[in-house]
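Figure 6 in text form: structure in, sequence out.
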């Protein structure tokens, strides 16, 4: 299992629906952190990938480390 987001489920789902430009704007305004976005998207991958098989390898720890460095 991947790293659970501290965000409420609805908010994490909402982040997963945003475009890259919308996420960029939110990050620039510091309305959310890179770690929050990364966790939300990792959770989305975990939830949906068993049905769609879109990922061969998910490097969750690396993604989170890079998000922490970006924050």
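Output sequence:
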């Amino acid at each position: 299992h991947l790293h659970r987001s501290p965000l409420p489920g609805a908010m994490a789902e909402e982040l997963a629906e945003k475009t890259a430009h919308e996420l960029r704007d939110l990050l620039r305004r510091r309305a959310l952190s890179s770690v929050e976005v990364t966790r939300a998207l990792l959770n989305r991958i975990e939830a949906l990938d068993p049905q769609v098989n879109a990922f061969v390898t998910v490097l969750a720890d690396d993604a989170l480390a890079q998000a922490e460095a970006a924050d």
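Caption detail: The first helix runs from residue 9 to 17.
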